[in-house]
Structures are given as structure tokens and as C-alpha cells.
Amino acid sequence: MYYWKAQIEKPIEFVSAGHFTAGYPWIHGKRSINSFEIILGLRDTAYIQQEDEQFEVTPGSVLLLLPEQTHWGYAYSDPQVSFYWLHFQCPESSMEFMDEKQAEAELGRYKHNPYLDQGMPFVLLPAFFKPPEVDKAGILFRQLLHIVESRYYTRQGADYMLTSLLIELTQQSMTAYTSPQGGMTSRHQRMMSVLEWIRIHAVKPISVDDAAREFNYNPDYLTRLFKKEMGMSMQEYIQKVKIDRAKEELGRTDLSIKEIAHRLGFEDEKYFMKVFRKHQQMTPTEFRRAFYRTHLNNK
Description:
This is AraC family transcriptional regulator. The chain contains 10 helices and 12 strands. By secondary structure, the protein is α+β, with helices and mostly antiparallel strands. It has 2 domains: about 5-175, Regulatory protein AraC (Jelly Rolls); about 185-295, Arc Repressor Mutant, subunit A. It is globular. The protein starts with a strand and ends with a strand.
């Protein structure tokens, strides 16, 4: 897998961006373009091939496509497939490509040298990965789309926001690399299964007892294990997943706050608003007002 490294003394040049949602069985057309493209999966799976490599862009995964290399869809996606996309350009003089060993050495240099207090003067991204906290990248993506559609007085606003997004993705790539756990233990693998189950069933009023029954855990043991592994209670994590879904609904639909609350398993609209404010420091209405400008496309 290739890694892309670029200097950021100056912001990366933004070209275009949008939120793709199909609405019909969809397959990516075959093309070769002169800019980089980043795709962040939101819903279902997009099947994209670049040269001889195939990628399944699932929700929360990030794919970096290269300029002048042909890419296309190698299978049809579900009509509900949805993802953010953006194009950008970077001069050859300020970037380079690395293999995995070179990238690990680069990251290790900054991890182990305590005197590099000015931080990394570059961004470094793998061709394909799943950020551990993809919601942070999603927020920056929505801010970028809002800036573009709002026609700010200077185009550099989009350049700087794009660069901030690339920095966030680099940070999360580094976090995954520097994790002290190394390879997954059996217990950690089961926890990943629990997290995926929560993601899939987040629209329902699920609880610790529900998850315990699904995975044959004692509820008290699962509660302690979840807290130890994730640093928060399962109920708090479930709320975070629900709020992430709510933000997506607020940004892409005209559903009322009450309708969104009920779709996410909240019987009480006021309680939903309280939980949303706790996690986002703003109301659902304020969030929708802040990020209402998004370019939608289905081609």
C-alpha cells in the first residue's frame, strides 16, 4: 500500500468537493483525472478499483485516489450508497510517495524524538484506512462543503480547511500506528464486534443488556470491559453513535427534530435535544443552521 506525504508550509490547493448519494444501483464510471481525490464512506459500500487494486469503501473508511491513474467501479453499489468526495492538487516538488516501511520509519522518527516539539511539517496519508474517530473528519468535511457553497470572499478559506482535514486524517493515521496494543487480542477483536453491532443497531433503543445477550456476556462484566477498553460507558458510546447519525440526518434531510429523534430510538424529543447539546455544545437546530450548505450530486 502506498503512502502520500506532502509539505504544508503552504495550504494544499482545493479543487472541488461534494456529498454523493446515488438513489439507484450505482457503479463508478471509468476515468483518469489530473487531481487527487479523497472519498469518505458514509453509507453502504462503494466498490472502486484503481489500476490493479480494489477497495471496498465502507462507512467510515477513507480512500485516496491518485492523479493520472485510471479508477473505476468494479461492482454495483446499493441505491443507498453515500460518501463525501473532494479533489485537490499538490505540486510534485512538495510531495513524495512512500511504501509502508518508509512511512513507519517517518512516523517513528517523530514519535520517539522528544525534541521535535514543532510537530510534523507535512501530512502523511495511507492509500486506504479507517480512522478511529471518523466523526471528527466528518465535521471538517461538512465545514469544507459549507465554506465552498457559501462562496467566501477568498478561495483560500477552502484551501486552509482542506489542509486542516488532511492534518486530522494524518493525526488519526498516526494514532492507529502508535497504538501500544499492537496486534488485536481476541478480547479486543470481540470488542470491535460489539462496536460494529452498536453501529448497525443504533437506530433502536438498545442497551447494555441487549449487547450482553447478543455476545453471551454477563452484563456487569461487559460494562466493566467496555469502560476499560473504550474509556467511557457503553451508554455514552451509544449516545455518541446516535448523535453522529443525527448530524447526518440534520445535514442531508429536511426531517423535523422530532422525526429524527424518533428515527434514532428517542421517544422523548426534549431528551434527544438535551443529549445532542451535551455532545455537540449546540442544539440540533443550531447545528443544521451552521452546516446547511452542502453540494449534492448523484453522478
